[in-house]
Amino acid sequence: MSKPVVVLDPGHGGYDPGAVAHGLEEKTLNLQLALAVAGRLQGVKVLLTRDRDIFVSLADRVALSRRAGAKLFLSLHANAGGGRGFESFIARNAGPRSVEMQKKLHPRVMAALSPWQIIDRGLKQAAFYVLRHNPNPAVLIESLFIDNEREAALWQKEQFINTLADGVTRGIYSSLGLPVEQTGSKKKTPPAAEHKSLYTVQVGAFAYIENARQRLSEARAAGFSDAYIYHKQL
Ligand SMILES: [Zn+2]
What we know:
Layout (H helix, E strand, L loop, with lengths): L4 E6 L9 E2 L2 E2 H15 L4 E4 L9 H11 L3 E8 L6 E6 L4 H18 L6 E7 L2 H4 L5 E8 L3 H7 L2 H19 L32 H13 L13
Parallel strand pairs: 1-4, 1-5, 5-8, 6-7
Antiparallel strand pairs: 2-3, 6-8
Helix pairs in contact: 1-6, 3-6
The structure holds zinc ion.
């Protein structure tokens, strides 16, 4: 069986920065998230409407979805305009598959974001071009408001982006009916015996042990069975 095609669509790019606030440009965040999600997805064929800072027209984005016969087209955006939180969109007259996929994807992202206390703005419909003209199931997510000081600060945390990317990845698996457990389960290559260095991968630093334990159990659940807590006295 051939792998389902997922088109990831980092919004804006090139001379179109999208929302701009607090020194952030939306186009950069969208791309960062898309690449993080693409790096996590397994068992699907991932296509990106752009993989660098270039302008791609909305029509070209939809054309890629059509050509590729995408099982899911997921457009990634960050919000602005005086609000807070996460929301997802499908087209106003979206078919049942888009409706179903939004229903499965949205709560997975919200679940991943729960440690960050992000407001759920809900499952919405809008006439966005890449949704309206898409021949394939299409969902657009707006992850936080970069003109909100707290949410702009979150977008600058690598840990937050990783959490968001995990949530989006789980959401994609769920929407495709694939097992969600495989999220982040990429096997690390153990260092060969002759290597003289040991590189430790840190996935979080916490002031409270409960939070460290929570992250440890997430890492273990994701397949990193050798994850451990390293305690440093400050
Ligand atoms: Zn946008």
